[in-house]
Amino acid sequence: MKAIVQDVYGSADVLKLREIGRPSPGDGEVLVQVRAASADPGVWHMMTGVPYLMRVIGFGFRRPKVSVRGLALSGVVIAAGPGATRFQPGDEVFGTCRTGSFAEYAVAREDRLAAKPATVTFEQAAALPVSALTALQAVRDQAKVQSGQRVLITGAGGGVGTFAVQLATARGASVTGVCGPAKADLVRSVGADSVIDYTRQEIDGDGNRYDVIIDISGSRPLSALRRALAPRGVLVLTGGDRYDRPVIAGMGRQLRAPFLSLFTGQRLRAFIARESATDYQALAQLAESGAITPVIDRTYALADAAEAIRQIAAGHATGKGIITI
Q1: Which residues on adjacent β-strands are paired with residue 302?
Q2: Helix/strand/coil for 193
Q3: From CA 273, how far away is CA 270, in angstroms rounded?
Q4: What pTM does this model have?
Q5: Domain ranges of the chain
Q6: In the chain, count of helices (H) and strands (E)?
Q7: What is the pLDDT of residues 240-284, one digit of tens each?
Q8: What is residue 311's three-state secondary structure?
Q9: Looking at the domain covering 2-127+294-324, what would its CATH class be?
Q10: What's the CATH code, domain 130-270?
């Protein structure tokens, strides 16, 4: 099968299109013919081995343990391993895989997949397992957004941000999105009541204080975010993808936030999204009902996967970049 693989850590130039063997499903796993895969910041981190802490905790010290890149996918089940009973050959699914999704075939655990709604395209479904999941858990679980609250979302024009705006709006919040001027119309179109152009205004420049801030861009210090937060507000850090800091990337803020919460009325939370078939099913229902609509910036052929990752690192993506296979 064709796949995007790498032998060493490095820039997108290390990604190569090769013919490799097709993986086989193990206990509780299925083999999926991949139809679409998502380009996410996590792919960049696995490609570069940055932050270096990743290498120490088990992702591979000199090279990635999993050589095929990609995590999120959508596709069609073609075979089931021993003990796999939830899905049958022919079922259309989406979720995450263990063998790399930038490939014609991938192996996934059944409890990391959900059925793809017929009304959702493969490209749209591939955008759900990472970006939409992160937004859902940030809005629903971490921030617990409620009707009538004032919510500020940074990075509102990106993959996670466009979902977060839609989800917070659906819960009845008044949403302000932070983005560059090129993405302002998009952010309004997915539900933001107002937009802050970060090239012209600081998030606390108008004196407003927000009940909830969901920080996806990861580009602002905690002090700036706290100035825009209400005295009893909730700050949720989902971002932190600082591509210019190889040792810990943006993890310093995530480590400091819970400690600072001990000394202030503001609740400062950092989290990493957890894979969940139950949440994938919830996202499928939201997408099927029209409550959320994935924003696809651009689709790429498998051979052009490296360019999709370059766009992420450059911060140019509007919504999601999807690789079609």
Answers
A1: none
A2: coil
A3: 10
A4: 0.93
A5: 2-127+294-324, 130-270
A6: 10, 15
A7: 555 445 445 556 777 777 777 778 899 999 998 999 999 999 999
A8: helix
A9: alpha beta
A10: 3.40.50.720
